[in-house]
Amino acid sequence: MFWLCLASACQRSHADLQGHVGGSASAVRLPSLTTDAAESSARALCEALHAVAAERKALCCGRAPERLLLDECTRAVGRSLGAGALSSNDAGVAACRAAMQEAVTGCDWVTPGPAPSVAACGGLLTGQLGEGANCRSSLECRAPLHCDGVGATQSGTCQAPRELGAACGAVVDPLAAYALEHELDVLHPLCRDFCSLLSHRCEATPRAGDSCVASVNCARGQHCVAGRCSDAEARTAGESCADAACGVGLRCENRRCVPLARAGEACRSDFECREGGCVVTNAGSSVCGMQCNVSLDALRRPTTPAMRLPLRPRPEGPSENASATRSR
Predict the structure, then answer these.
(1) CB–CB of 83/139 below 8 Å?
(2) Looking at the chain, which runs of residues are DSSP E strands?
(3) 328/308 Cα distance (integer angstroms)
(4) Maximum separation of any 2 CA atoms in the chain, in Å
(5) Which DSSP letter does residue 290 get?
(6) Are 56 and 106 in contact (CB under 8 A)?
(7) Who contacts 283 (Cβ-Cβ below 8 Å, separation ≥6)?
């Protein structure tokens, strides 16, 4: 499940919903931080998440660092901290910053997309609101509660995971997007069991062997292989990927797991690179490396693999590009 939002929509939502947390009669009244303390904690977190990578990317690409995500993240997180809806792990924030600095060393990682995902930067914010409380994000709710009804321009209420048969689907959660919380659907699930993005209903957790189109149709820890959910152990370099997914840092090519290309090595698409993007050199060859701007050159090349999933499962084995995407 993807927890994404456009910067403009997130910016509008936090302006529209200012001061709306805790309005429910059942909301728990919590101690709040002073404005200065909340802003200081929020800025430390958001600088670790956004400024470290933005400043390094700007240095690599020879331009001024972007500030929109930093400023909006600071404003959104600071407001929730100040209202007592969130608490921040300050020691964890320091560890996150150090890990992010290490992750963005050099320039080979640079792409037009977000900074590398860093495990140390997850779970730094803890929700403090109880069931029935008004909320601006699922992050503000105590796990496993989620913010039911939240959107880009509206608040919701903290609710327990939904029962089988209830409606569910992707959610726009601005605060979670700014906080780069990739485990939101695990910590604050919409469904008690599993949210199907095909039926948009809460369903029983998929089992190995169930039909699928992509890995998002399968349970956590499973992969969609040859149209069926598989919990087989990920394959290592050189092993067959005809009936299982490749491990981290590998891709499936000609039904064999091969390492993702390193900086300077040949590539055909961004999916084949361990870091950075697939860029065209002055000599006309394509290699993995720093990519500062979005380029359509790769999409125009006839040798570029298709970047979309098949419309139906392929009985003969997983698609090469779908497996490459999973391995990233």
Answers:
(1) no
(2) 86-88, 125-127, 134-135, 146-148, 156-159, 194-195, 202-203, 223-225, 228-230, 250-253, 256-259, 277-280, 286-289
(3) 15
(4) 67
(5) -
(6) no
(7) none
- Which tokens hold the place of 286? 């394509």
List, as one string, the DSSP characters of 38-105: HHHHHHHHHIIIIIHHHHHHHHHHTSPPP-HHHHHHHHHHHHHHHTTSEEE-HHHHHHHHHHHHHHT-
Q: How would you classify the pairing of strands 250-253 and 194-195? A: unpaired
Encode the chain (328 residues) as per-residue pLDDT tens digits. 434 443 444 444 444 444 444 444 344 445 567 788 999 999 999 999 999 999 999 999 999 998 989 999 999 999 999 999 999 999 999 999 999 999 999 999 999 888 888 999 999 999 999 999 999 999 999 999 999 999 888 999 999 999 999 999 888 999 999 999 989 999 999 999 999 988 999 999 999 999 999 889 999 989 898 899 999 888 999 999 888 889 989 999 999 999 999 999 999 999 999 999 999 988 889 999 999 987 665 555 544 444 333 333 333 344 334 344 334 3
Distance CA 268, CA 252 (A): 14
Amino acid at 228: R
Task: Evaluate whether 43 touches 3 at the Cβ level (below 8 Å).
Answer: no
- What tokens appear for 305 in the block? 């693999």
Contacts of 110 (CB under 8 A, 6+ apart): 56, 57, 60, 61, 276, 290, 291, 292
The residues, any chain, with a CB within 8 Å of residue 239's CB and separated by 6 or more, are 256, 257
Torsion region of 254: left, alpha or beta (phi above 0 gives left; psi -120 to 50 gives alpha): left
In terms of C-beta density within 10 A (0-12 exposed, 13-18 middle, 19 or more buried), how is residue 130 classed? middle
Bridge-partner residues for 259, per DSSP? 250
Output phi, psi for 61, to 5 deg: -95, -5
